């Protein structure tokens, strides 16, 4: 059994990254096709601005999820669970929905799919942290990060940003439902969501630098 666990730990990073890279590539292809087929994006006006905001969010979401997964793989080893090899497909389905439903008339369900995407991704990250914390190979890394930032792997640190992000997305969905999907309020909600994704990428970059290069938190 120990030999099987050893092989699983060795193979799981490449397996997960291979699955996710295929899914991400397909999602980008779907997004590109949707942009080419969505004539309203090139006609100007508020609907086009909303559509391009959706394109930006979708692209950023794909990149953020990829970088987050790579960050997990390069920092930790863990014994994979069935959910670890199923999750990339779940994320892929949600990304395909985001990439293919750029029409403003679908904005509310599109935002709900976005919220679901990041809920699944965050829960997956938390499960990986939990599995990785059980292995002695990761103990030094966890201890160093806890010294630098106490509570970095606690529930508040893991789920707090998710709660804020989902609340913002649901707020944007409420604005779109109340004022209309082609309203300035809906566009404002999408722009805020874009900004939060940029902050999320910067947060991942900060953890990456602190984990691998021992750089200060502000680099």
Q: Concise description?
A:
80% of the residues lie in helices and 0% in strands. It has 219 residues and is mainly α.
Describe the overall structure.
- By secondary structure, this protein is an all-alpha fold.
- It has one domain.
- It is 80% helix and 0% strand.
- The chain has seven helices and no strands.
- The mean pLDDT is 82.
**Roughly what is the average pLDDT, rounded to an integer?**
82
Number of helices: 7
Low-confidence stretches: none
Identify the overall geometry.
Answer: elongated
Task: Give the number of domains.
Answer: 1
* Structural class based on helices, strands and sheet pairing: mainly alpha
CA-based gyration radius: 19 Å
Secondary structure: helix percent: over 70%
Could you tell me the number of beta strands?
0
| Measured distance between first and last alpha carbons | 42 Å
* Main sheet overview: none
Name the helix and strand elements from N-terminus to C-terminus, one letter apiece.
HHHHHHH
Strand content: under 5%
Descriptive tags:
single chain; 219 residues; mainly alpha; 0% strand; elongated
List the SSEs and their pairings.
Elements: H1 2-37, H2 46-75, H3 82-100, H4 107-133, H5 139-148, H6 155-179, H7 184-212
Helix pairs in contact: 1-2, 1-3, 2-4, 2-7, 3-4, 4-6, 6-7
